[in-house]
Predict the 3D structure of the following.
Amino acid sequence: MNGYDICYKIVIHGPDSNRISYSSNKMKSYLLLSILFCGTLFSCENKNNVRYIFFLHNRFLEEHELNDAHPEYGRAEYNEIISEFQKNGFKVISEKRNGNVNVREYAQGVVRQIDSLLSTGLKAQNITVVGISKGGYIAQYVSTIAENPDLNFVLIGCFMDSDMEEIPDINFCGNILNIYERTDPFGVSAIARKENSTCTITHFKEIEVNTGLNHGFLYKAMKEWMAPTMEWARGNY
């Protein structure tokens, strides 16, 4: 068992619930029991009318507190982003990661969470993994490991042309939305990855935004990327 397995905590946010944290060792069974018996995390609604977002933040927050400001981009609006998803009816599964986590190992943990939800009968298309910057690379590995063409993914500011050579083991799978900022050198079109992937990609779309904020656009709860993300999560491809 590595340090990630020991330290990992998950936070679930819903439109009608408070935040609840618990350790990863009991996470799978807790998720399952909560859904089956309509516990405090989930209301007794038709599970296939519920849409989940797994939100994976950037690297800056791994090494800084929520109120710390990036010298160029300012404060990362983690809570505001989650609140916006929540206000729009999504149940959000997220945590503030600490330390420089291993991207692939962390993705394996997310896949286990997804499998727990799917085991209750929830449809894969009701689950969307949203990742910004480093969180987007984690999301790419979730796509690769899960190999589920019905899952939704929104990748934000997390692909560079050099990734094809430097990270050759990523294989897109699922419905993929790639959002990047025109002035951001850390996010460009990922069509090369899509064309190189061997798994089923039923829906693929790219959106270039033009906020002029460089990589800082993903630090903010901006409608430019949040609105299309939520449309994708609703299945409006």
Observations:
- The CA atoms of residues 81 and 221 lie 5 Å apart.
